[in-house]
Amino acid sequence: MNLNDLTASRIKDIRLEKGITAKTVAKQLNLSESSYSQVENGHTDLTLPRIEALAKIFQVSISEFFPTINNGSHTYNGDNGVNVSNSSTHINNFFADQEHISKAMELIQDALTGKK
């Protein structure tokens, strides 16, 4: 599973939690309903501006779109939370502390904006 799939899944979950229809979100993003469906199904590459727009629509932090996996009070990952390979970028999980989450968010933002 890649970053886009993980993020798309969270987008749909958050939309449903907020009680907002896909039609409403599509309209606010100036997309057709079918195009927005592609976003939620992971068939459209997400850009940072699109993620920022979704965060504004849902009134959540951008970090809400990226999953965390906690085991008790700690999150475990042997690869510092982010794996980057030449062929793709994906997230195993994030650490629970703010420092690691912030660093992971910087890496994601750099990847989405083409800085790395």
If you had to describe this structure to a student in words, what would you say it looks like?
- This protein has 116 residues and is mainly alpha-helical.
- It has a domain at 3-65: Orthogonal Bundle (434 Repressor (Amino-terminal Domain)).
- Helix content is 50%, strand content 5%.
- The protein contains five helices and two strands.
- Strands 1-2 form a two-stranded antiparallel ribbon.
- A hairpin with a 4-residue loop joins strand 1 and strand 2 (89-91).
- Helix 2 packs across helix 3.
- The longest helix is centred in the first third of the chain and has 16 residues, at 3-18.
- The protein is globular and about 35 Å long.
- Mean pLDDT is 74; it is low at 70-96.
Describe the structure using short key phrases:
5 helices, single chain, two-stranded antiparallel sheet, mainly alpha, 116 residues, 434 Repressor (Amino-terminal Domain), globular
Lay out the secondary structure.
Elements: H1 3-18, H2 22-28, H3 33-40, H4 48-58, E1 82-84, E2 89-91, H5 98-113
Helix pairs in contact: 2-3
